[in-house]
Amino acid sequence: MFKDINKNKKQNVKVLLIGRIATNIADSLFYITILWYFKTTFHSPMILSLVFIVDSAIDMCAFIFGPLIDRIYIKNLLKYVTIGQTILSVFATILFYLTKWKQLALILLLLTYVLSTIGSTLIYPAEEKILPVIVSKDELTKVNSLFQLAYRILDLFLDALATLIVTFFSLSKAMIISAFIFAIALCFYAKLYLPKNLIVYEKDNDYFTGKYLHDLLKGWQVLKNEGQILLLIIPLAVTNLFYGIASVGMPYFTSQYLTKSAISYGGLELFSSIGGLLGSLIISKIGILNKIGILKQKLERIVVICLGLAGISVILETMIANSIPMLILVFVLSSAFWISIMNINFEVLIQESFNPHILGRIETINSSIINCMIPIGSFLGGIIVQRVSASFAISLQGIAEVITAVFYLLVFNNKKNNYCRIKQQLFFFYSYFCRDLHPFCIKIISNISVALLVY
After folding, report:
1. How far apart are the first and last CA of the chain?
2. Does domain 212-412 have CATH number 3.40.50.300?
3. Which contacts of 380-384 are long-range, i.e. CB under 8 A and separated by 24 or more positions?
C-alpha cells in the first residue's frame, strides 16, 4: 500500500493542486458575483456589510467543523462539498431571475452564500490534512510552498479576472461559469488516490470518542497538550489584531504619502502580492535543502527571523514615508516576502506536529483563534486612525510583529533555564543606568536583551 502511495505521490499532488486552484477560481467568481448582485440590486451598504459579517463569523467558528473534517473520508468530503457548491451556484443563478420577489431572493442568496462559504471552510483545511499523508516529510516544505506559490499567482489577477467576467457577462452567466469551474474541481478531486485506512479514523483511535462534541473538545485538549504550538498560535492571533488595525489605516496612509487616487492603494496591494509570490518561490527552491535536513533544523529560527524582519519592514514604511515615499512599496513587498516564508514554515510545523487523524480539528481551531482577532482589530483601527493617525496604526503592526518574534525566540530557545535570573539582573541594570526611561520601556528593553543573550 505504501509503495502504491509513493508511486502515485506526484500525481496526487498535481491533482490536488489543480483541484484547489479550480476551487479558488470558482470561489472568487461566486463571491464577486453575489457581491455585485447585492450592490446593483439593493444599493445598500448595510446589505454588503452582511456578506463581510458572514465571512468573519464563519472564519471565527471554523473550529466547529473540525471533527467533521476528521471523521469523514477526506476524498468523499472534497467531492460532496464540491457537488454542493456546484448545485448552489446553479441555484443562485435561478434566484437572480426573481426580480418580483427581491426580499425572498436576498434571504435565499444570503443562505446560499453562507452554505457555500461553509463548504470552502471544509475544503481548505482538507489540503493541510492530505499533504502530510501523500508527501514525505522531506518534501513537505517544498510542496506547501508550491501550493502557496500557485495561490499567490492567482491573487495577482484573480479578483480582476472575476470582476471582468461579471462586467462583460451577465450575473447569471458569471454564476454558471462558477458552477462549471466547481465541476472541473470535482473531476480532479475524484481522481485523488487516498487509501481509506490511511485517512479515515478507526473506532479504537485515541483521537475519537464517538460523540461530536467530545471529539471537538479532544482537538482542544491535544492542542493544549502540545504546549509549544499553542504558545505560537496565541501570540500570532494577537499580532493579527494589529494587522486588522493596520489594514484600516493603509488606504489613508497611501493617500497621504503616495497619491490620493485608488491607484496608490492598488499598487501597494500589487507589491504585497509580489512579495508573497517571491517568498513562496524562494521556499520552493530552498525546499530542496530539506532532503538533507537543513531546513528542518533551522525551521524554528526561520519563523523568528522572518516575523522580526517583517515587523521591521512595516516600521520602516512609516519612518521613510515623509522623506522617500516610493520606498513604502519596497518595504510592503519586503514585509509580505518574510511573512510568506514564515507562514509556509509555520504550516509545515503544524503538519509535522500532529497526527493526520486530528489535523482537521487542529487546523480549524488554529484558523478560528488567529482570525477572531482581525474584526476586533478592524474596529479598533477605525478609532485609532480617526483619533491618532494612519501612520501610528501601521506602526503598531510592525511593533507587534517584532515583539512577537522576540517571544517566539524565547519559546524556541533551548537555553531558557537561566532566563528569569538573567532578565531580573538586566532589569535592575537598565533601571539603574536608564532612570529617565519609563519602567515599561525598561522592561521591554530587558526582554529583548535577554532574548538576544539567551539565543
Report:
1. 44
2. no
3. 380/241, 380/244, 380/245, 381/244, 381/245, 381/246, 381/247, 381/248, 381/249, 382/248, 384/245, 384/248, 384/249
Which tens digits make up the pLDDT trace of 46-84? 676 677 777 778 888 888 888 888 888 888 899 999 999
The predicted-structure confidence for 164-204, as pLDDT tens digits, reads as follows 787 788 889 999 999 999 999 999 999 988 776 556 655 54
Which helix or strand (DSSP H or E) is residue 174 part of? Answer: helix 171-189
Per-residue model confidence (pLDDT) at position 186: 94
For 43, the 3-state DSSP assignment is coil
Return d(Cα 216, Cα 252) in angstroms, integer.
Answer: 42
Quick one: cell of 340? 510568506
The Cα–Cα gap between 454 and 303 comes to: 17
- pTM summary value: 0.73
pLDDT on residue 196: 66
Indicate if the alpha-carbon torsion angle 273, 277, 280, 283 is positive or negative. negative
CATH number of 1-200: 1.20.1250.20
**Cα within 13 Å of Cα(185), Cβ side:** 29
Cβ neighbours around 263 below 10 Å, total: 12
Query: What is the C-alpha separation between 207 and 224, in angstroms, rounded?
Result: 14
CB 52 within 8 A of CB 371: no
Per the structure block, which three cell numbers stand in for 62? 471554523
What are 392-403's pLDDT values in tens digits?
989 999 999 998
> Distances in Å between the alpha carbon of 318 and those of 176, 383, 387?
45, 19, 17
- Give the separation between CA 35 and CA 33, rounded to whole angstroms: 5
- Whole-angstrom distance, CA of residue 354 vs CA of residue 360: 10
pLDDT at site 335: 93
Helices (H), 63-136: 66-71, 74-95, 102-134
* Residues in contact with 67: Cβ distance below 8 Å, sequence separation at least 6, in sequence order: 212, 215, 216, 219, 360, 361
Segments in 43-73 forming alpha helices (H): 45-60, 66-71
Contacts of 134-140 with C-beta under 8 Å, sequence gap 24+, read 134/5, 134/8, 134/9, 134/12, 134/13, 134/16, 134/194, 135/9, 135/13, 136/9, 137/290, 137/296, 137/352, 138/290, 138/291, 138/293, 139/287, 139/290, 139/291, 140/290, 140/348, 140/351, 140/352
Render pLDDT for 207-235 as a digit per residue (tens, 0 to 9).
777 787 888 888 888 887 776 677 777 78
How far is 64 from 383, CA to CA, in rounded Å? Answer: 31
Beta-carbon contacts of residue 191 (< 8 Å; ≥ 6 apart):
15
